Amino acid sequence: MIHFREDFLGKLKSASRLVFFSGAGISAESGIPTFRGEEGLWKKFKPEELANFNSFIRNPQMVWEWYQYRRKIGKESLPNPGHFAIAEMEKYFSDVTVVTQNVDNLHRRAGSKNIYELHGNIEKNFCIACHSRYDFLDFQESVDVPRCKSCGGLIRPDVVWFGEMLPQDVFSEAESKASKCDICFIVGTSGIVYPAAFIPLTAKQNGAYLVEININPTELSSTADYSLYGRSGEILPLILSAVKSKEY
Ligand code: BV8
Ligand code: ZN
Question: What are the pocket residues of ligand 1 if the criterion is a CB atom closer than 6 Å to any ligand atom?
Fold first, then answer.
């Protein structure tokens, strides 16, 4: 059981707009490996080898297989109590926004309504030549990198690779939500990937109260007003029960 600090409970009581800025750590308890943790995805592979356009052009098959491997893990994973707690918060606050760096769809599958996917979505794909769009179901079984039906071009996952711009409309709307929120929760992220990591900083600059939920301190810990160390799948449901029982 955690006894939350009085100032945090006070903020919860007066808040109406929440932002949950999430990273790979929120999905760790769903069985999806994080990027930089012990079992990190990058341990076996390096970001520069896989999550960037030039590697895809040089070796489309290798990059495609990595994403098929991650899609398979994603398909076998379920949202965990942390995702569900965030979704249920929508009943108790007027505006709950999820700004996620994750591409795994678990927030949506947990029932969250307002989600900004800053780095895209692993179940979506497009042709690099004519930009025709394809969703994951078209290629569930395809081991080989698929070719576009209309032009024969290579098909890639619709995620943001290193060196690529984030979807501008998604990012600016997420920034505007961050600038207006009362509390910004930073959940399960090492906070080293930019410009995504600007989101909590924008919230802070506009007067939001920052709560970090992580098993370790991170790059963003110094900006947080309150750091809750532990697994997000355990801490988020405790915050939800504090809200439901009006512990403040
Ligand atoms: C761009 C999608 C330029 C693909 C990913 C300054 C400004 C702008 C850019 C840069 C900059 N400095 C450097 C850059 C370049 C680069 C960057 O940030 N590099 C970093 C590594 C230094 N940024 C870019 O390239 C971005 N693009 O800048 O374009 C530009 C500008 C104009 C015009 C053209 C171009 C694009 C970055 C996006 C890259 N794509 N993913 C895919 O998924 O395959 S990044 C990847 O990292 C994932 O999206 C992931 O979400 C993201 C962040 O990682 P985390 O989510 O934080 O995961 P991590 O493993 O690191 O941490 C997990 C945390 O969870 C840990 O803290 C752990 O303790 C915790 N945890 C674990 N278990 C639990 C837990 N917490 C709670 N409970 C648990 N149970
Ligand atoms: Zn095409």
Answer: 23-25, 28-29, 34-37, 40, 51, 101-103, 119, 159-165, 188-190, 192-195, 213-216, 218, 231-233
CA of 116 to the centre of ligand 2 (A): 27
CATH number for the domain spanning 129: value is: 3.30.1600.10
Residue segments in the chain with a per-residue pLDDT below the cut of 50: none
pLDDT in tens, 212-222: 999 999 999 99
Q: Measuring from atom 13 of ligand 1, which residue has the nearest CA?
A: 194
If you measure from the C-alpha of residue 28 to the centroid of ligand 1, how many angstroms do you get, rounded to a whole number?
Answer: 15
Summarize pLDDT for 198-245 with one digit per residue, the tens. Answer: 999 999 999 999 999 999 999 999 999 999 999 999 999 999 999 998
* Cβ atoms of residues 213 and 2 within 8 Å: no
* Residue 188 CB partners (closer than 8 Å, separation 6+): 22, 23, 24, 25, 26, 27, 28, 34, 82, 213, 214, 232
**14 with 45, same domain?**
no
Domain that holds residue 53: 33-76+125-159
Strands 133-135 and 155-159: unpaired
Q: For this structure, is 3 an active site residue?
A: no
Alpha carbon nearest to ligand 1 atom 73, residue: 25
Look up residue 229 and give its two tokens: 């160390």
Instruction: For residue 128, give the ligand nearest its CA.
Output: 2
Same domain, 155 and 223: no
pLDDT of residue 152: 96
For 13, 44, 53, 56, 59, the CA distances from 64, given in Å and listed in that order, are 47, 16, 12, 8, 9
